[in-house]
Amino acid sequence: MTIIWLLVGLGLIVLGADWLVEGASSIARRAGVSEFVIGLTIVGFGTSCPELVVSLTGALEGNADIAVGNVIGSNIFNVLFILGLTALLCPVTMTQDNRKKDIPLTLAVTVLYLAIGLNRTLWGIGQADSLSRWEGALLLAIFAGYIVHSFVTGKPAEDAAESKPRKLWIAILMVLAGLSGLIFGGNLFVNSATNLARMLGVSDKFIAVTILAGGTSLPELATSLVAALKGRDQLALGNILGSNVFNILLILGSSALITPLSLASVTYVDALVLTLSMILLLLWAYTGRRERIDRWEGALMLLVFGAYYTYLFINL
Length: 316
What we know:
By secondary structure, this protein is mainly alpha-helical. The chain has 13 helices and four strands. It has helices at about 1-30, 35-45, 50-60, 65-90, 95-115, 120-125, 135-155, 170-200, 205-215, 220-230, 235-260, 270-285, 295-315; strands at about 90-95, 130, 260, 290-295.
């Protein structure tokens, strides 16, 4: 039964990702905004729902390690593994806006989070490395400005008239059904995989570092792969960047507003890899074929991800 539920969860993830991509693409064409903006906002928020639930639950229970670790782990997984794997299978196209605005903005949000969170380690101020309530409120205010800016400056995709979009109500139903499939399927998959691992005698630490760390990022993985394979590169890239921004500004901002979050468990290696993931993405925008993330660049991102996870295993 565990294996059956595992396969059912995987099926819901794949089907949900397909519906979400199709519905979001139709909404983008009808609304006159780019698929990148839809990926950055609607899809980015939808695929971040598992992280939102996990982090807010951790904050409400006073467990900062869950809230903070979940976001850092998910953001690293999103860029190095998901975008790396997506580019390895199908090179991801970048636009001039991606290179000059979107990627630098996501990097800036990442650096801001580490700068205000690791206040004692980096600057020698404060009593501990933490996110206070007012810093959480600051992140939420920046998030509101980010969403408004994305829609105001979003341009329609050049291929917006490539195919006739679905009726709006059908597209909205597809997005909602797709998100539901991703969230419920992801939860079912993670729980089943965890139970199966325990049946096989795998340790809880191993499960936490592998299955659970990547579990909340399954929606991003499925959505990005399906989008790229359908030739919707901008939706795939927007999904990853949007998810990372949502994770930091909305999820950590909301969690810190509920209760101050300690970052004492964040190591130099965690902070370095989180920052490096975005620096690599920015670097790829100006190396090789500048209009895309090439396969060799995706492979290198996967190698960095593998090295980081090896470090985690060694230091369990």
